[in-house]
Amino acid sequence: MDKKQEVNKGLMLPVMEAFYTIQGEGVHTGTPAYFIRLGGCDVGCVWCDVKESWEAEKWPVSTIEEIVQGALAYPGRMVVITGGEPLMYDLGPLTKLLKEKGFTINIETSGAHPFSGTFDWVCFSPKKFKEPHPSIYVQANELKVVIFHKSDFEFAEKHAVLVNDNCHKLLQPEWSRSTQHLQSIIDYVKFHPDWKISLQTHKFMDIP
Ligand code: SF4
Q1: Could you tell which of 59, 85, 144, 148 is best to mutate to test the pocket of ligand 1, judged by most ligand atoms within 8 Å of the CB?
Q2: pTM of the predicted model, to two decimals?
Q3: Are 138 and 45 in contact (CB under 8 A)?
């Protein structure tokens, strides 16, 4: 079987980078975690801070065994699968292997592709640039909406009515415009208390 077929089956995946750090944003802020950043994204956010991830072909493919071996080298047992857009791939085999090794498995996704894999925590961050696939709404534990423009509050509410009742709802200022939008996010959350604020604390800490 060639590499392309292995990737199609989720047995090999293009890995842009993998590193042990602190989860900087969302509900699990402050938790040590091993990040697996898969290459490839077709969402095209104008403010994307990992544009180099977009072309999957640029990144070497690794077997899921090699990926899990990398995670096992560190003491933390939380893994965050991110991208790029990780749901471009079948994440069933990777998440099964990670679970067998005792990891808590989180994903960060725009939800733009059909859901796959088994996760302990699903952070769904919808993007205006590509509609989410309907399979994400029942899976989301966390709805995290990046505020880049004032119209993003309305966009956030549009998705909030579609997620399940237990889903945590977070608004996060886009980093380059955080000064511009932070006050309006604070005001919004004070008067819409079902939302909370998420900040990219790893950027304050200057860690990946
Ligand atoms: S979904 Fe994520 S990786 Fe893809 S373009 Fe948007 S911010 Fe970048």
Answers
A1: 85
A2: 0.97
A3: no
